[in-house]
Amino acid sequence: MKRSLVLLACVAALGMSACTKQHAPQIVQVAEADTGGSRRGDFGPPIGEPIRAVLTSPPHVPPPTNRTHPARVIVELEVTEVDMEIAEGVTYTFWTFGGTVPGSFIRVRQGDTVEFHLKNHPDSKMPHNIDLHGVTGPGGGAASTFTAPGHKSTFTFKALNQGLYVYHCATAPVGMHVANGMYGLILVEPPQGLPPVDREFYVMQGDFYTVGKYREKGHQPFDMQKAIDEHPTYVVFNGAETALTGPKALKAKTNETIRMYVGNGGPNLVSSFHVIGEIFDKVQYEGGTRFQENVQTTLIPAGGAAIVEFHTEVPGNYVLVDHSIFRAFNKGALAMLEVDGPEVPEIFTGKLQDEVYIGDKVASLASVATAVQASAQGNLTVAQQIEAGSALYKGTCSVCHQDDGAGLPNVFPPLAKSDYLMSNPQRAIEVVLNGLSGPVTVNGSTYNSVMPPMSQLNDDEIANILTYAMNNWGNKGPAITAEQVAKVRATTKRAEGAAH
Amino acid sequence: MRTDALRLMAASLLLIGSTTDAAGTRAIADAPLQITIPAGELASVLPPAPGVKTVRVAAFRLDHTPVTNEQFSRFVAEHPEWRRDRVAGVFADGSYLSHWRSATEIEPHQRNQPVVYVSWFAANAYCESRGARLPTWHEWEYVAAASATEQDGRNDDEWRQTILGWYSKSARHSLPEVGKTPVNYYGVRDLHGVIWEWVDDVNAMLVSSDNREQSSPDALRFCGPGALTMEEKENYATLMRIAMLSSMQANYTSKTMGFRCASDFGTHGRNKP
Asked: Could you tell me which of A475, A306, A454 has the C-alpha nearest to residue A392?
């Protein structure tokens, strides 16, 4: 009791450096349940010939070391300053470890001696260095690796602690080097390795600060003031808004165990990491040894990481987001995991039925009733169709395509001024009736989402909705008739999962 | 202190190595014009001592543009010990003047581009050959603090952002010719947006290579007069220049590191014996 009081006093006095190592009571003991941390991380000198580490670009992860002894592992990492896309049509000068953001994934085993070579490309304008959070030693290697352009530095460290660690550049001004993408992950496997899984992915979030607005085209320089104010223009996974969407989406199959090594480079934001439609069976929060089970959203600090695992049961698209959600839909923090496999309706049915629920909007449906009547009498006008279509659109379509027809960036394509919609009315009818899944290109952007079939709507309703959509928000198109819809309905096979 | 030691070493080795023109002071024609910079005070990002806010900069003269490949090639012609195939490795690393066509010839398009891939030793020797010297950090910083209209433009966000714009472009692109950027308050050009520049006391201004070591600086690395603290941390542009200089040894060369010369006020570099 007395001892812990002394310790408390000591801790309190630490700020005044009154508590030196000699005076500190030795109360630290390794409990059996502990891994022992760095005190049990030294398994002796490296055995055998030095091994060259396999480095991978995101989203790939090097294979397990599959070793039972400590080795000398050579890591060669090259720093380059490169112009790459951060969003469609928007370039940015990234400073990279290995040519990618995040930098190359490094995988070693606890107890390994890592011989680290940091090379700074001759075309670099800046000096750079590296601070690996998995290093025990001053600066995490930063001072030891401070390297001018066209030079190379070497240092060695023993990976004493197992876990998933961020590395980053720590050259002045540190914030700017990190903001330009200079971070990545190093995994120090426990001596027994990690349990095998079916797939491993490398995902890392970062916030970016550009002079131009979100998606403003052209080459965008770094905006120092926005960075200091912590007002990012972009929040993205793997260095670009489109890094893990469309054709570059992560891919898996049903009945697989997925492990994601998720880091957050920052420089400023803390991530609320979430996968829409999945629950993490295990989260090794903060990249540590213990895990939490059955987690929906896990916090990943800037300069921190987490290992998340889940099992896939149901096919479909799963969206990785920073659930600080405006970042996902307005700053780019969206990534896609496509899970392929047979439907499992006993776990998840998909949409069984979609009916108009109008709440207290009954009055607004008067226009629909008018149109139905006029149609029956054969004197329906385009204006009536548009009015009825407007009311129906709000109840059925606007949730995804939005009231203004603009859709949601990267997720739901726009209808307003949409080349896809306007170029082919026949196809538009088919899409509404049968739904649409898989990639489509709308106004030059690729979307890869699922639209359920809307065949529960009758021919009049679909005709009115389409007439509204094709003659609104600046669109100028033909009126669609109920006969046209009926014809398509009769000639196309009913899609699976359609309600009627 | 270290700078003086380096200079002594350079001088003694040069005397051994040079066959002609041992004094190394023959005037070079067509050197950049020098502008007189009046004395003044500067709130430096590297204050000379804790608690001291400003540095007094005496009047001096500064080249109005960086030294070009053509100017440097004449120096090399007159001082062949500075040819890339003859220079000692302690004075210049393997990339020294590697962008030239040969040890003595430059590419035509390089004529008016600032000379880069030069070591501190080589830059120093060039300036000495003109009877001049490299500017000190505080001299350089004093003149570089000026915008087109203000003696100290560093609080002008727009001007600062323009400077930062240069850092947002990778070094893969070809260098511009000297003298194409607007003159600043003093009539000097190209201090920003073209190259990094060597300064005389580069070894005395070393910033820690891990700039987060604020609380327990390594005394050895902080022995210089300027490196005790870094003020104005938001002045990223200056911070980056210091970081770059800190990463360079005196024999290092880089694709974007050049220099210009300075002289004490009242002397004229070109005519000094």
From this structure: A454
Q: Using the CB atoms, write b or e for B168-203: b if 16+ within 10 Å.
A: bebbeeebebbbebeebbbebbbbbbbbbbbbbbbb
Q: What is the dihedral of CA A342, A344, A349, A350, to 10 degrees?
A: -30
- What domains lie within chain B, and their CATH numbers? 31-264 (3.90.1580.10)
CB contact (8 A) between residue B239 and residue A172: yes
Q: Which two tokens stand for residue B239?
A: 């911070």
**Strand-pair partners of A351:** none
Q: Characterise A78 by phi-psi region: left (phi > 0), alpha (psi -120 to 50), beta (else).
A: beta
Residue A349, phi then psi, degrees to nearest 5: -90, -20
H or E segment to which residue A46 belongs: none
Query: Which residues from B are below 8 Å from A123, CB to CB?
Result: 170-172, 255
3-state secondary structure of A394: helix
Structure tokens at A479: 């009126």
Angle in degrees, CA A458, A463, A464, rounded to 5: 100
Decide: A9 and A25 in contact? Cβ < 8 Å.
no
**What's the sign of the alpha-carbon dihedral B148, B155, B40, B141?**
negative
**Interstrand relation of A72-87 and A51-52 (parallel, antiparallel or unpaired):** parallel
Give yes or no for a contact between A190 and A110, defined as CB atoms under 8 angstroms apart: yes
Provide the 8-state DSSP code for A255: T
Write out the DSSP string of B98-152: TTSSSSS---GGGTTSBP-S--HHHHHHHHHHTT-BPPPHHHHHHHHT--SS-SS
Q: What number of other Cβ atoms are within 10 A of residue A177's Cβ?
A: 24
Measured CA distances, B39 to A202, B135, B242 (Å): 57, 14, 23
Which of B247, B248, B249, B253 to probe the A interface (max A CBs under 10 A)? Answer: B247
The band of B47, judged by pLDDT with boundaries at 50, 70 and 90, is confident
Q: Does B158 touch chain A (CB under 8 A)?
A: no
Q: What distance in Å separates the CA atoms of residue A81 and residue A124, rounded to the nearest whole number? A: 6
d(CA B213, CA B207): 10
- Give the tens place of pLDDT for each residue, A80-89: 999 999 999 9
Going from the C-alpha of B219 to that of each of A235, B9, B138, B213, the distances in angstroms are 40, 24, 22, 11
Is the pLDDT assigned to residue A35 strictly greater than 50?
yes
What element of type H or E holds B71? helix B69-78
Q: How far apart are CA A264 and CA B96, in angstroms?
A: 40
Range in A107-116, A329-338, A430-439, B122-131 the model is least confident about: A430-439
**What ipTM describes this predicted complex?**
0.76
- Residue B154 half-sphere exposure, CB side, CA atoms within 13 Å? 19
Phi-psi category of B154—alpha, beta or left, where left has phi over 0 and alpha has psi -120 to 50? alpha
Cα B98 from Cα B105, distance rounded (Å)? 11
Residue of B212, B234, B256 with shortest CB distance to A170: B212
How far is the alpha carbon of B143 from chain A, nearest alpha carbon, in Å?
22
Q: Which DSSP string corresponds to B200-255?
A: TTGGGSPPPSSTT--SS--TTTT-SSS-S----TT-HHHHHHHHHHHH--TT---T
The reported pTM is 0.72
pLDDT bucket at A188, cuts 50 / 70 / 90: very high
Residue at token pair 């001892």: A3
Contact of A91 with A276, CB cutoff 8 Å: no
Q: B247 and A81: CB-CB below 8 Å?
A: no
Amino acid identity, position B76: V
What is the C-alpha separation between A36 and A458, in angstroms, rounded? Answer: 67
Backbone angles phi, psi at A180, to 5 degrees: -90, 5
- Look at B167 and A222 and tell me if their CB atoms are within 8 Å: yes
Q: Considering only CA atoms, which of B247, B271, B235, B165 is closest in space to residue B198? A: B247
